[in-house]
Design goal:
The complex is a heterodimer.
Chain A: H1 2-27, H2 42-64, H3 86-108, H4 111-126, H5 131-153
Helix pairs in contact in A: 1-2, 3-4, 4-5
Chain B: H1 2-12, H2 15-33, H3 38-46, H4 55-72, H5 74-80, H6 89-100, H7 104-137, H8 142-160, H9 164-178, E1 181-182, E2 189-190, H10 204-226, H11 248-252, H12 255-270, H13 276-290, H14 302-318, H15 320-326, H16 332-343, H17 352-355, H18 357-380, H19 382-388, H20 393-412, H21 415-434, H22 438-461, H23 468-471, H24 473-489, H25 491-502
Antiparallel strand pairs in B: 1-2
The chains are: A mainly alpha, B mainly alpha.
Amino acid sequence: MIRRTDIVSGLILAALSILLLLWIIPANTSPPQSENNLSPAFLPSLAALVMGTLAALLAIVSWTSPPDGPEILHEEFGDEARGIGPAEISDIVVWSAFSAAMMAGFLTIGFLPTAVAALVLIMLYTGERRPIPIAAVAIAVPLALQQIAWHAFTVQLP
Amino acid sequence: MLESLIAGFEAALTLQNIMFISLGLVIGIIFGVLPGLGSVTAIALLVPITFYMSPLAAIAFLVGVNKGGTSGGAVPAILLNAPGTPEAAATARDGYPLAQQGKPEKAMKMALYSSIFGDTFSDIVLILLAAPFAAIALRFGPAEFTSIVLFSFTLIAALAAKSLTKGVLSAALGIFLSTWGLDPVDSTTRMTFGYTELFDGISLNALAIGTLALSSVLVQIMDLRRTPPKPLAPVVQADYAADNKLTFAEYWANWRTLLRSACIGAGVGMLPGLGVSLAAFLGYGAAQRASKTPEKFGTGALEGLAGSEAANSAVVGSNLIPTIALGIPGNVAAALLIGAFMIHGVVPGPMMMIEHAELVYSIFAAMLMANVLHLIIGRIGIRFWGQVLRVPKTIILPIVVILCIAGVYIPTNSWFDVGIMFAFGALGVAMRRAGFSIVCLVIGFLLGPMFELSLRQTLLMYKSDLSILLTSPISLTFLVLTVFFLWRFGPAQWLRRRRASRTPQ
C-alpha cells in the first residue's frame, strides 16, 4: 500500500503545485515594490516548484520500483506509516466532519458543553464503555480547564 | 564565563523558577511515561501557555519538560517492554529483562541516574561551546546564512526522513506555509485569502500542536478503534528489598560507559537532523562493543541501561548549541523552544549571546538546577510513575485532544487558530500514514523566514549578484556540503537500492 500511496500522493502534490504556480500564488501576491528586491511571489513559487518537481519524481520512482517488499518500519512514525487506503481516508473524513461540528459548537454554544460532548463521543469512539469514567472525565476535564484558564491566565473560555 | 554563570544562578535561583522547573519535570515525565505522547507533544502543548510567564521561567519550564520527557520514556520500556518514546527502545533491551528478574526499581534507578549524568554532561558542553560558536557565527553575513539554512534543510531531510525526496518535499511545504501573511519587506499581503487573521501568518502554535501533538493522538485513537488495547501485564515484584537497591559502586562501575555515551549523545545533539533515537542506539552499541562482557547485553546488564540512557539524555543540552548560536534547531524539541523564545521577543541566533547574555546564562543555570531537581523528583516518584501507565489510553487520548484545543485558544483567544490546528491535525494524520516527515515540515516552516530574509538581504547588499554565494569560502563550503548530501542520500542511495534489488540472493 505504501507504493500506491507514494504514486497517488506524488500525482496529487504535483497537480497541487501546478495549481499553486499558475493560479493561487499569482492571484494572492503583489508585484515587488522596490528595485533589487525579490518579488513577494518568489519564495512561495520556488517552494511550490520544488514540491512539484519532487512530487513528480516521487510518483515516477515509485511507479518504476518493484512492488512493496518486506515492511521496514518508518524511522519517524514506526508502523503508523502503512499507507493511505479506504480506511484511512474515511478516518480523515470522519475527523474533518467531527472537527467542523466542534467548531460550530464552540462558536454557538461555547466551550464547556461542546468539550463535554466531544469527550463523551471520542471516548465512546475509542471503545470506552464504562459510564462512570466517561461521565467523570467528560465533566471534570472541561470544568478544570475553564477554571485554570480563568484563575491562572485570566482567560474566559466562551 | 564563570562570572556570567554565577550571575545566571543568582537570577535563576528563585522559588518561582524552582517551582516551574519542577512542574515542567513532572509533566515531562508523565508525558514520557505514557506511550505515544512524549516530550515533543508536551512541549508543543505547553509552549503557548508560557506566554504568561517570564522568559526565564518559560524556557526553564520547557527545558524541564524536555528533560523529564526524555527520561520518562524509560519507565514503560523497563516495566512493559513498550518504550514511551522512540529513544527508549534501546533502554528496553536491558531494562525489561532486569525488571523480569524482579528488579524493576533497580532498572529505573539506573536509567534515571544515567539520564541525569548525560544531561549534566551535555549542559556543561553547551555552556562551554555556545559562546565560541556564536562568536564564529557573528562573522557570518546574509550570504553565509543563506547557504547554512539550505544545508540545514538538506541535512535534516536526509537524516531525519527515511526518503530524501519526501523529506525535502515536506520541508518545501513548510517553507511555502511560512510565506503566508504580510511580505516581510514590502508589507503586502501574501496568501491571506482575505482573512485578516492571516496577516501575521499561520500561527506556529496551531501548526506545531496540530501536526505534532493532535495528529499523533488522532492516529492512536483511530488505531484503538480497530485494535482494542491489550490488558497490561502485571509488573514482576522483587522477592527481596535488596533486589531493588542500586549501590553507588554498582552505578559508578559503569563510569566509562556513562562518559562514552554522554560524548556520543552530545556529539549527535550538535548536528541538526540526527535524532535522539540515533544517539540512544549508538550509545548502546558502543557500550556493548567496549564491554568486557558483551554477552550479558540483552539479559539485564546495567551497562546497557547506562549506555542508552546517558546517550539519549545528552542530546538535550547540546541540541541548543546550533539553536542559540545560529538560530537553527537541532531537532523538533529545539524548534519548539525557538518558538517559545520568539513568543518572548528573543530571537535565537548569534546576536542572542550579545543582546540577551544575562538571559542565556540564566537559562544555563536553570538547566543545571533542573538536573538536581530531576534527581530528586525522579527518585521520589519512581514508584508512582509506573501507576500512571495504568490509566487507559481510552481516557488519556480524548483528554489530550481537549488540551490541544485549550492550548491553542488560551494564548490567542482565537477560534480561527483552533480551526487551523484542526486542519493541520488532518494534514498530520495524512502525512503520518503516507510517511512524509512532520519534523521536516515544522523545521521548514521555522527556517523559511530566515532563509527568505537572508536571501533578500544578500540580493540587496550585492545588487542582485548571487555569485557571492560561491565566492565566500564559508558559503561555498556549505553549498558543496548541500550538493554532497543531496547526491549521497538521493541518487546515490537510489542507485544502491536498485543494484541491491537486482543482485540475486
